[in-house]
From TrEMBL:
<dbReference type="Pfam" id="PF00408">
    <property type="entry name" value="PGM_PMM_IV"/>
</dbReference>
<feature type="domain" description="Alpha-D-phosphohexomutase alpha/beta/alpha">
    <location>
        <begin position="8"/>
        <end position="135"/>
    </location>
</feature>
<dbReference type="Pfam" id="PF02879">
    <property type="entry name" value="PGM_PMM_II"/>
</dbReference>
<dbReference type="InterPro" id="IPR016055">
    <property type="entry name" value="A-D-PHexomutase_a/b/a-I/II/III"/>
</dbReference>
<feature type="domain" description="Alpha-D-phosphohexomutase C-terminal">
    <location>
        <begin position="376"/>
        <end position="449"/>
    </location>
</feature>
<dbReference type="InterPro" id="IPR036900">
    <property type="entry name" value="A-D-PHexomutase_C_sf"/>
</dbReference>
<dbReference type="InterPro" id="IPR005841">
    <property type="entry name" value="Alpha-D-phosphohexomutase_SF"/>
</dbReference>
<keyword id="KW-0460">Magnesium</keyword>
<keyword id="KW-0413">Isomerase</keyword>
<dbReference type="InterPro" id="IPR005846">
    <property type="entry name" value="A-D-PHexomutase_a/b/a-III"/>
</dbReference>
<dbReference type="InterPro" id="IPR005845">
    <property type="entry name" value="A-D-PHexomutase_a/b/a-II"/>
</dbReference>
<protein>
    <submittedName>
        <fullName>Phosphomannomutase/phosphoglucomutase</fullName>
    </submittedName>
</protein>
<feature type="domain" description="Alpha-D-phosphohexomutase alpha/beta/alpha">
    <location>
        <begin position="263"/>
        <end position="371"/>
    </location>
</feature>
<feature type="domain" description="Alpha-D-phosphohexomutase alpha/beta/alpha">
    <location>
        <begin position="157"/>
        <end position="256"/>
    </location>
</feature>
<dbReference type="InterPro" id="IPR005843">
    <property type="entry name" value="A-D-PHexomutase_C"/>
</dbReference>
<dbReference type="InterPro" id="IPR005844">
    <property type="entry name" value="A-D-PHexomutase_a/b/a-I"/>
</dbReference>
<keyword id="KW-0597">Phosphoprotein</keyword>
Length: 454
């Protein structure tokens, strides 16, 4: 009987519980399918610190090699380190990680040469179909000459490449607390930060895919409490938290207060625009703060608004030739990094900006954080379509309001905006709201939530 991969093949990646939903034999079939769909002569594979990652990635490598593909294994790495390898070596790549999901999960993020993403519309559906077919009929005939599997360490090259994109030579000494969450930041940070004038205070750098200290998802406020406290105790200049595969970074200031990813997007955008002579396109998704397009315009750039999701950001970056892109979820995309996301490069920009002036981080980011946001609020609903329609009816036709449906429903006035969009995987509606002051935002947030929740 053919395997049903519908529960583990998502819009942009493979993800599920091991071994209940997928295992090494299935990983081997996926490796063979990836080799066939990409039609590659060679590919590169990396993995995170989860207990199941080495076995799954090696099985994937066997499947690809059996099809005649030469496989380069880079071993333990962050997701953006895998993207670096895909870009620098000009090879398709596969990263074994489930990011911030619990320990029993694992997954695969795949890309074509140059770190171009593989999603449902760009090869993932075909990979799934082949793996399902072969699970019933047996693996395809091996190539007459199997491919080789070799090892290569790319950590030093990755670190040097990132440091070459940000000038950190003249920064003042900084004390920085880094919470790696027992994820891949514990592997990459010591090498990337080596030689910089930093007093590094490491937290949870031990690689442990069971996440014994806290979930490796810094967007959940509960998971940065330890970092906030440590920053205050150490009198540090800032704190940085990475997620499990270290492709996202979250920043707290010298007081331990979270810095909004929108403010980081605006700060990095201003630096990238300055580096490009005050010209260039910057991508932001539709639930980043009003601050982002404002700062981009003030710095001479052109802001472009997109739907939420890395595939939309990367596609628009490629289409428009954008120099940078940012999301509310702390994903940051760089043209100089093959349009791929790298939280580590964003972190280096923050260090360079802070270390290039004398004031505290809270003062530096204030100019980029101009409005009051609600954060993302999820509501479980029985009928997403009906509840979204109820919100639309409540605001349609009101004077001074604009409505658009680029992604869910966005309603804007001169003093506030909100967006409600359905989850693709759960019976949820997600609300983000922003206003010029706290009172207005609170009133707006509660008003829209009352409609959503019926």
């Amino acid at each position: 009987m053919a395997a049903d991969l519908s529960t583990i093949v998502k819009a942009y990646d493979v993800r599920g519980v091991v071994p209940d939903q997928w295992d090494e034999p299935l990983a081997e079939l996926l490796g063979a399918a990836f080799a066939q769909v990409t039609d590659a002569d060679a590919l590169v594979i990396g993995h995170d610190m989860r207990p199941s990652s080495p076995g799954l990635s090696r099985a994937f490598a066997r499947g690809a090699a059996a099809r005649g593909v030469h496989v380069t294994e880079i071993g333990l790495c962050s997701t953006d380190q895998l993207y670096y390898a895909s870009g620098a070596l000009d090879l398709p790549g596969a990263m074994f990680t489930a990011s911030h999901n619990p320990a029993q999960y694992n997954g695969i993020k795949m890309c074509r040469a140059g770190a171009a993403p593989v999603g449902q519309d760009t090869g993932l559906a075909e990979i799934r179909a082949l793996a399902e077919e072969w699970s019933e009929t047996g693996a395809p005939e091996p190539a007459a000459t199997p491919g080789t599997i070799t090892r290569r360490d790319t950590l030093e090259d990755y670190a040097a490449y990132l440091r070459g994109l940000v000038d950190l030579t003249a920064i003042r000494p900084l004390k920085v607390v880094v919470d790696a969450g027992n994820g891949m930041g514990g592997h990459t940070v010591p090498t990337v930060f080596a030689g910089l004038p930093l007093d590094l205070v490491p937290m949870y750098f031990e690689l442990d895919g069971t996440f014994p200290n806290h979930e490796a998802n810094p967007l959940d406020p509960a998971n940065i409490v330890d970092l906030q406290q440590r920053v205050r105790e150490e009198g540090a200049d800032l704190g940085i938290a990475f997620d499990g595969d270290a492709d996202r970074c979250f920043v707290v200031d010298e007081r331990g207060n979270p810095v909004s990813p929108s403010a980081i997007t605006a700060l990095v955008a201003s630096r990238e625009l300055a580096r490009h002579g005050g010209q260039g396109t910057v991508i932001h998704n539709l639930i980043t703060s009003w601050s982002v397009p404002e700062v981009v315009r003030e710095c001479g750039g052109t802001p472009v608004r997109t739907r939420v999701g890395h595939s939309f950001i990367k596609a628009e970056m490629a289409r428009s030739g954008a120099i940078f892109g940012g999301e509310h979820s702390a994903h940051y995309y760089f043209a100089d990094f093959w349009n791929a996301d790298t939280g580590m490069l964003a972190a280096l920009h923050v260090l360079a900006a802070l270390g290039g002036q004398d004031g505290p981080l809270s003062g530096l980011v204030a100019q980029y954080d101009r409005y009051v946001g609600s954060g993302e609020i999820n509501s479980t609903v029985a009928d997403q379509t009906a509840r979204l329609a109820a919100v639309r009816v409540a605001y349609a036709g009101q004077d001074g309001l604009t409505l658009d449906e680029l992604d869910g429903l966005t309603v804007s006035s001169a003093d506030w905006w909100f967006n409600v969009r359905p989850s693709n995987t759960e019976p949820l509606l997600r609300l983000n709201a922003e206003a010029r002051d706290e009172t207005t935002m609170t009133k707006l947030r509660d008003e829209v939530l009352a409609i959503i929740r019926g």
